Structures are given as structure tokens and as C-alpha cells.
Automatic annotation (TrEMBL):
It comes from Cardinalis cardinalis (Northern cardinal). This is E2 NEDD8-conjugating enzyme. It holds the Pfam family UQ_con. The keyword Chaperone does not apply. One of its GO terms (biological process) is protein neddylation. The keyword ATP-binding applies. Its EC number is 2.3.2.34. Keywords: ATP-binding, Nucleotide-binding, Transferase, Ubl conjugation pathway.
């Protein structure tokens, strides 16, 4: 899965300790985001919840992946929910962009796929928003928890879904 890491090592080996020219060095320059992602993806794959599966459509683009969450308890048990995650160039100073691709009736996910999860917010009042110390693993575990622990009917994004639940559990 870590083809980007292999590519980086191979490129460093080809280039050697001294770059032959400034032009070729700039074409091989790897962003801070990509260097972080190589480490974070390895950590994520080693610590993935059993209810989650990560898919990289292009193994050379670690900044874009899909996540499938299949809850094994709670209201959404047995469901299969797809999320799309795109990591911006300014990562880890800004959070990844995550969208739910599966249409779902959930108090914290709109029918168009927007997600209410504090750690996906760049700024939050309660201090639980994004911080440069957070990782992709935190995002995946947070999304997984939206179907169990973090299911929040008191402060919903989808008000109709929350009201429906309160009327008819």
C-alpha cells in the first residue's frame, strides 16, 4: 500500500546525496503533506477499527481515499456507509475534507453528505476541533464513532432526523 514511500526512497536513491541540477530537484520535491501521509497511512492501516475499511483508488495519491464503515452495533448496525476523504495541500494545519457518499437519515450527517464532527472543523468553540496534532486515524475513529458513541441528537446537523428519532425511536 505504501507505494508513495517506496517511490520516495527510490527517487532518493536515484538522485543520490547531491542533486544534479536545481530544475530536476524541484520536479522531485515532495510536499510536507505527502511525507506526513506516508507515515499516517501506515499507522492508520495498523490501527483500523474492525468495522472500517480504507480504499485508495490510486495508491500513489495518499491524499484521496474512501472509507467504508459497517457498524456492528446500535441503530445503524448492518449498514454500509461510504465516506470520501480528501487531504488538502495545507494539511496538517487544516483538516481533511470528508463527505458521506451514502444517503443516510442521521442527525449528524445531512442527506447531501455534510458531516457534523467537531474534529473536522478548523475552529471550534469547545476546543475539540482540528489541531495539527490530529491524524487520519483520529478522523477514521471519529467517523466510526458517529454510529455509536458520538451519535448526537441534542445538537444535530440534520434537525429533521433528530426530531424523528425523538418522536419514534
Amino acid at each position: 500500500m505504501l507505494t508513495l514511500a517506496s517511490k520516495l526512497k527510490r527517487d532518493d536513491g536515484v538522485r543520490g546525496p547531491r542533486a544534479p541540477s536545481a530544475a530536476s530537484d524541484s520536479t522531485r520535491r515532495v510536499s510536507v503533506r505527502d511525507k506526513l501521509l506516508v507515515k499516517e497511512v501506515a499507522d492508520l492501516e495498523a490501527n483500523l477499527p474492525c468495522t472500517c475499511k480504507v480504499n485508495f483508488p490510486d495508491p500513489n495519491k495518499l491524499h484521496y481515499f474512501q472509507l467504508t464503515v459497517t457498524p456492528d452495533e446500535g441503530y445503524y448496525q448492518g449498514g454500509k456507509f461510504q465516506f470520501e476523504t480528501e487531504v488538502p495541500d495545507a494539511y496538517n494545519m487544516v483538516p481533511p475534507k470528508v463527505k458521506c457518499l451514502t444517503r443516510i437519515w442521521h442527525p449528524n450527517i445531512t442527506e447531501t453528505g455534510e458531516i457534523c464532527l467537531s474534529l473536522l472543523r478548523e475552529h471550534s468553540i469547545d476546543g475539540t476541533g482540528w489541531a495539527p496534532t490530529r491524524t487520519l486515524k483520529d478522523i477514521v475513529w471519529g467517523l466510526n464513532s458517529l454510529f455509536t458513541d458520538l451519535l448526537n441528537f441534542d445538537d444535530p446537523l440534520n434537525i429533521e432526523a433528530a426530531e424523528h428519532h425523538l418522536r419514534d425511536k
